[in-house]
């Protein structure tokens, strides 16, 4: 006959008792996990379908109105980000620089981590130049180069500053920018262009060396003439 200790340590019996006591909880948790998995899978499927639809719409787009349709229907999608940039390009081509910058700022606000964020900032600065807002353009180029030094647009943003600085007769600042490109981005194709710009800049005015009055040489101290040696006695 089995003892009480043998009965209570039987793994099969313990499992049966555990299931009997907690089966409703286990079933509820399993249902939650199942529904959660189905919901996540459905969400992923929905996102994939949305992305495919957005890409198909972008591929067929050829006009600003069609780009805007992509943005309106799929505002957070990757194709919407591309549609913003393409729309801004169309607006710039039509010389609608203010509208193009409004579009680029929407892109920047909506996709701040996008891989083409610096391209958007370059577009903003170029449009400001076209609007004659050179000071704002210069500030934008400087900000881009400072905040995104590893970006492929960083040396381009630096080089774009040079003509703006030269126009303001800030040749020393232009020279420093060129030297920065040559030293920090020596492997970039823009380093050669920076060298040409550097050579074309007026040479800095030579600083005359300070005139130093000659210091008179000190005269050696006067000493008493030596007394003639006594002649030897005969």
% residues in beta strands = under 5%
Mean pLDDT: 82
Range of helix content: 55-70%
Counting H and I runs of at least 4 residues, what is the number of helices? 10
Shape category: elongated
Radius of gyration: 40 Å
* C-alpha end-to-end distance: 153 Å
Low-confidence stretches: none
The largest pleated sheet is described as: none
Please provide the ordered H/E string of secondary-structure elements: HHHHHHHHHH
Class by helix and strand content? mainly alpha
The total beta strand count reads 0
Topology (elements, then pairings):
Elements: H1 4-8, H2 11-60, H3 64-73, H4 78-93, H5 97-110, H6 117-130, H7 134-147, H8 154-167, H9 171-184, H10 190-200
Helix pairs in contact: 2-3, 2-4, 3-4, 4-5, 5-6, 6-7, 7-8, 8-9, 8-10, 9-10
